[in-house]
Amino acid sequence: MLQLQAIRDSKNNIINALKKRNIDATSIVENVLELDEKRRATQTSLDNTLAESNKLSKEIGMLFKTGKAQEATILKEKTVALKEESKTLTEDLNTATEELQQLLYQIPNIPHESVPAGSTDEDNEEVFKEGNIPELNKNALPHWELAKKYDIIDFELGVKITGAGFPVYKGKGARLQRALISYFLDKNAEAGYTEIQVPHLVNEASGFGTGQLPDKEGQMYHVGADDLYLIPTAEVPVTNLFRNEIIKENEFPICYTAYTPCFRREAGSYGAHVRGLNRLHQFDKVEIVRVEHPSKSFDALDGMVEHVKNILRELKLPYRILRLCGGDLGFTAALTYDFEVFSTAQDRWLEISSVSNFETYQANRLKLRYKDENGKNQLAHTLNGSALALPRVLAGILENYQTENGIQIPEVLVPYCGFSKID
Fold first, then answer.
1. Widest CA span of the chain, in angstroms?
2. Torsion angle, alpha carbons of 148, 150, 151, 155, to 10
3. Residue 186: φ, ψ to 5°
């Protein structure tokens, strides 16, 4: 959430910056400032009314002490009116504050200056590419056919149990899934991330804290009876560990990694591009989250990008990195790098990770602060990234490592799997 003071001080700059997202924010920013002015005026009136009421209460006490009961009674009538006025002003203040908060929730983060202009994913900027795309034999299959051939993933059984987008992993497919999770967690731990386990359901406050609510409410599974949400990513519960916290400056950086299943409705997703593992409603992901000092957050982002690079190098998968354009940038992000692995059998790139810096946007929602060297509270920066999302990594491994005699397992995963080939 953008800071009110920043909107007051830099209204035109914020409106111009949001144009990179193809958004004309003039109206909503003006509404924010108008409502903020109303809120502050109401607060001033309330403060004055309360001050006057307190002053009269003291005078009434003195009058009673000096035997001037009649004068005291007259003033008491005034305090009754002031109390009614303060009650009305408090209600008006609460209403204005809530309306202002809801307006602020609707304004996305300001794109970083390095974010390229553009409207769709076609305008994203490729900043890095690495790895050799293998030449497959003429009988090469996409991963959903390989899964059926070797009986390692059953999509139809998932439909029977739950519905489309909930696959069942079997035998070596299940073991490969578990191997990837352990490998990712080990790599993250080696890089200094502390492993934690977190709940898979969160309350509404957590959803608002990281920005999934109200922006992505329709994409989240809601447990209505308990008013809880199934998590779309471990980013939500992990980052919310720090909601309403003030941390010490010497605690930076705070680095966590967590494995969780993730749940996304993916409403409106259909077509050939979502076949198999390409788009699921439930999938596994290992996440990395950082809380950083503002002066160090972009160095930390670069470090996260290098970390994911190293994992993909060890897996020996061809990949590229995109800097997302303004029109494709997530609602809460200031800067995002997407990693995509090349699916040889599908002849297309598949997104496998997003690494983002949110600057103070999430921290302002979370009220996540630190004390600076002068003892003043400042907003921290938050970052997160997938390291990694399993479905499309698995799809890339199955397709790129297939041979006429089976599917080879990347060398780095063999100790985790206990086998070197699926046949």
1. 107
2. -30
3. -65, -45
Phi, psi of 192 (to 5 degrees): 100, 10
SS (H, E, C) 95-143: HHHHHHHHHHHCCCCCCCCCCCCCCCHHHCEEEEEECCCCCCCCCCCCH
pLDDT for the residue 227:
96
User: Cα separation of 205 and 297, whole Å?
Assistant: 25
Would strands 377-379 and 369-371 be described as parallel, antiparallel, or unpaired?
antiparallel
The one-letter amino acid code at 309 reads K
Q: Tell the residue number behind the tokens 């307190």, with chain if given.
A: 54
**48-60: pLDDT as tens digits:** 999 998 888 888 8
The separation between CA 271 and the C-alpha centre of its own chain, rounded to angstroms, equals 26
In sign, the C-alpha dihedral spanning 51, 52, 57, 58 is positive
Q: Name 335's bridge partners.
A: 357
Picking from 181, 399, 344, the residue whose alpha carbon sits closest to that of residue 408 is: 399
CA 238 remoteness from chain centre: 10
> How big is the CA angle at 246 (ends 241 and 252), to the nearest 5 degrees?
80
285 in Cβ contact with 233 (< 8 Å): yes
User: Per the structure block, which two tokens stand in for 199?
Assistant: 């709940």
Token pair for 67 = 């035997």
Angle formed by the axes of helices 69-105 and 26-65, to 10°? 160
- Scored b (16 or more CB within 10 A) or e, 60-73 reads beebeeeeeeeebe
CA gap 400, 343 in Å, rounded: 7
Altogether, the residues listed in the chain come to a count of: 423
What was the pLDDT predicted at 407? 97
pLDDT digits (tens, 9 = 90+) for 172-201: 999 999 999 999 999 999 999 999 999 999
The model carries a pTM of 0.93
Are the beta carbons of 72 and 64 closer than 8 angstroms?
yes
Q: How many angstroms separate the CA atoms of 370 and 387, rounded?
A: 27
